[in-house]
Amino acid sequence: MTDTSPDMVAEYRRRIMALSPERRLAMACEMFQTAKALARAGILQNGPLPECEVRRQLFLRFYGSEFDEEERARILASL
């Protein structure tokens, strides 16, 4: 569901595509950093955790569903 008109979607896309590839990549990196900061804040909202546990929780939030249980456990152990 969207409340954005097709004309506005097309205009947004036109403006984004008018940016250089470098600027679009920088924007994507900035958005990922913001998402990571928000996820970190959510993880820490109930109190401090060791950094290794924060990394594990971030991994699970961002990538946990991308791996089967065995691979996920192996990655978590390495974090």
What does this structure look like?
- By secondary structure, this protein is mainly α.
- It has helices at 6-18, 21-44, 51-63, 69-78.
- The protein has one domain.
- 76% of the residues lie in helices and 0% in strands.
- It is elongated.
- 0% of the residues are buried.
- The model has no long low-confidence stretch (mean pLDDT 96).
β-strand percent reads under 5%
Q: What's the count of strands?
A: 0
Q: Based on CA inertia axes, which overall geometry fits?
A: elongated
Helices and strands, in N-to-C order?
HHHH
When the domains are counted, the total is: 1
Please report the number of helical segments. Answer: 4
Supply Rg. Answer: 18 Å
Structure class:
mainly alpha
Low-pLDDT runs of 5+ residues are none
Q: What is the residue-mean pLDDT, rounded to a whole number?
A: 96
Reported for the largest beta sheet, the result is:
none
